[in-house]
Amino acid sequence: MTEIKNNKSLKILSNILFAIFMLVMAFLIFLTAQSRLTGMEPSLFGNRLYVVDSGSMEPALRMNSLIVVNERAPDQIEMGDILTYYGPESRTRVTHRVVEIGPNYEYFITQGDANNTEDAMPVEQERVIGIVALSIPFIGYVFRFLSSTQGIIFIISVGIIAFVAPLLFKRKPKEA
């Protein structure tokens, strides 16, 4: 009797975990599709989503983590905040910790936690995106894959299989 209860509990737990996994995947697919269709950076409810590309902020932010960045005005940024900003070329994004704030928030001096020196160039107000609110380790791998051509092919294939498989394997009623 106890073994049956354990198996039932295990099955319920595995179903819950599978449902959570599917919700996360659906969420990532939605964000990927949204950013692909609009040509804009992935965002949700005023927060931008990025994948950490380097180890300069380890251990606080691990490589291939998905970070959620709250957009902020420069005067809402404090010492010690992890700031995301446009790099010297507007195509790049940098995420480093604020170690000094200029007068009237005109600029910020930043430094990666794993770096020995401050960044060479101060960050002007115009380049500020916001501060990191949340970091989710390893989800960056999935996000990158879903943004790639192979990922889009995978999404389409899974969608087709999910639609066609039930039609092909429909159970026939048993005859009496």
Shape: elongated
Distance between the termini: 33 Å
Please list the strands of the largest sheet in the order they lie side by side.
1-2-3-8-4-5-6-7
Count the E strands. Answer: 8
Runs in which pLDDT lies below 50 for 5 or more consecutive residues are: none
Structural class: alpha+beta
**Rg, alpha carbons:** 22 Å
- Biggest sheet: strands, sense, closure? 8 strands, antiparallel
CATH superfamily of the domain at 40-137: Umud Fragment, subunit A
CATH architecture of the domain at 40-137: Ribbon
Mean pLDDT: 85
In helices, the fraction of residues equals 25-40%
CATH class of the domain at 40-137: Mainly Beta
Q: Spell the H/E element sequence.
A: HEEEEEEEEHH
Q: Briefly note the CATH topology name of the domain at 40-137.
A: Umud Fragment, subunit A
**How many DSSP helices?**
3
Strand percentage lies at 15-25%
Q: Any chance you could write out the topology, listing elements then pairs?
A:
Layout lengths: L1 H37 L4 E2 L2 E5 L14 E6 L10 E5 L6 E9 L5 E5 L11 E2 L3 E9 L2 H9 L1 H20 L8
Antiparallel strand pairs: 1-2, 2-3, 3-8, 4-5, 4-8, 5-6, 6-7
